[in-house]
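Each lists chain and fold; for instance:
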Amino acid sequence: MSKLYNRAGVSSTTSGTGTVTLGSAIAAGVTPNACSYLTFANAGVTDGQVVSYLILDANGAWEVGTGTYTSSGTTLSRTLIKSSTGSLLSLSGSEQVFIAALSSNIVNLTENNTFANINIDGLLNVNSGQFTVGTGVTDVFYIRDTDQSHAMEIDIGSNITADRILTLVTGDQDNTVEVPFLPKTKHLTADHSISSTTQTEVTDLSITLVAGTYRFSYFLICQAAATTTGFTFSVNYTGTATQIVSALSWIDSASTAATGSVDDTTTGTVGGVTASWVARAEGTTTATMNTGTAGNTAADTDLFLKIEGVITVTNGGDLELWHGSEVAAATRVESGSNLQITRVV
């Protein structure tokens, strides 16, 4: 992006359409202004910088564009944006060269008086509703109010998209506020049905993970075609899991000791024992957890089951839920069943 500098204006004796040689600063009393100007160097332009320029020729022609300043020989290359002739001027040798603001250097406001498509020297970008800190910010990005002690500090390196913690530091007391990893959810859009003891994957409830430790919960709406049929499950990871524990739980029809019969309706006085099956291993086609052989209290009726667990993984992969029937009869995990998972480390 070209640079703007205040009050830079020099004379030139260059002829033709080539790179213009920059002369001395325009003295006071010389047209077009009655005030003196600075040379590009005195205005702060450094070697190799791109600036926006205006050339006014003694013959009335003008040219605006961008050019690269070269301190050795004091020259300015010319890339045309617009001119009175529609092309690079063939300079007369009596022109004046200024650093000037072009339309592309000015931030435009939308009809709602909000900034749009802004790039602040590669440090801050606002575009299409997204606020981005550029690669030029390597340490800390600050947001301040009129009292600079009330600063909000965002540590560069925080990366929400990579599931890292974003750290905000308030300037008043230098307290760190950590935004934890946010839960992710998946939901089942169609029933997963099976009539086999050989399990298959409930693909809609699979989710891709990166290295870290996670807690997860599957909230399952299940049905069986017969009251004599139970449910089986396994949790699997396609990458490397160094630790995994999970537990299947349900409300049992018994009131004192679990029988393995999943209850569909429980009152305060009948049934209500919470039953569970715990696993410390992964599984796919072979079950690692099941509700037992007692079946359920109502065929083709919604039943609630839950699988909770913790998993630590060292690389990328998919967390999967596998489902089967306790006997070769139909069971279903119903649409609307869902997964909630949160990274904790």
